[in-house]
Specification:
mainly beta, 8% helix, 4-stranded antiparallel beta sheet
């Protein structure tokens, strides 16, 4: 077991690890009043910083070392999805002027999916970000005539296939008839998809999600020594706040 340390505070935890053994997560700073995202690489712990606000977190990374997370803007009333790569931080913004965004996943090609929210946990749009942006509303990329209204994007694989949640006709956000959905790109790796316009595909083009398939959803705090019984509720509180921001349900 290797103690990764913290960024000066007493509390921190990791969120993801890649094939190179690099780790990302978040840690309290000295005084334990704010937390920042971190990147750990074989003994070196780096504070990835924020967008000018107090808090941030790093939630996932790919094998190329590209890191995604979210970071507060100045004033800490809003947060945006962030990409860290090559020592630089990129604010991925939001969709259609939505106030906040939260990342879900990144693949080996640097494509990122997630959701925009009202900053209080209500999801507004699922998004895809690639090729330097801008962030795009996934619903706008689905072929016309689809009966599914997308609610969120949870993950993306290296073929550009995206899984998420959607509503069927007649459903609303308060109903229980939502389904899992799979978005299949209209590209050279997915020929013969009904409704795809392959004239838009070129050898240099990236994945364009287009076709949706339904899958039924089955004092100095830094000096304090915390016991496991004290750490557990702190962890649950931290995770509850994280899922509240993203609009997801925390694990039980």
């Amino acid at each position: 077991m290797v103690d990764l340390g913290t960024l000066g505070g007493v509390f921190g935890f990791s969120n993801d690890v890649n094939e190179r053994g690099q780790v990302v997560g978040q840690s309290d700073l000295l005084g334990d009043l704010v937390n920042h995202p971190f990147f750990w690489d074989h003994g070196v712990l780096t504070d990835l910083g924020t967008l000018g606000g107090d808090n941030g977190e790093a939630t996932a990374l790919n094998d190329a070392g590209q890191v995604i997370g979210s970071a507060d803007l100045p004033g800490s009333q809003a947060h945006h999805t962030v990409l860290w790569q090559h020592g630089e931080m990129t604010d991925l913004g939001t969709v259609d002027g939505d106030p906040c965004s939260n990342e879900s996943a990144i693949n080996s090609r640097g494509q990122i999916v997630g959701t925009t929210t009202n900053c209080e946990g209500v999801i507004l749009h699922p998004f895809l970000w690639e090729n330097g942006g801008p962030m795009v509303d996934l619903q706008s990329l689905v072929v016309s005539g689809s009966s599914v209204t997308l609610l969120g994007a949870a993950d993306i694989n290296d073929r550009g296939e995206i899984v998420g949640k959607g509503l069927l006709p007649g459903c609303d956000n308060n109903s229980t008839c939502g389904h899992d959905v799979l978005l299949i790109p209209c590209d050279q790796n997915h020929p013969g998809i009904e409704g795809c316009d392959y004239s838009l595909v070129s050898a240099a083009s990236e994945v364009v999600p287009a076709h949706a398939n339904n899958i039924p959803a089955a004092t100095a705090a830094s000096e304090k020594q915390w016991s496991s019984s004290e750490m557990a509720p702190r962890y649950r509180s931290w995770m509850a706040n994280r899922f509240h921001k993203s609009g997801a349900l925390p694990p039980k």
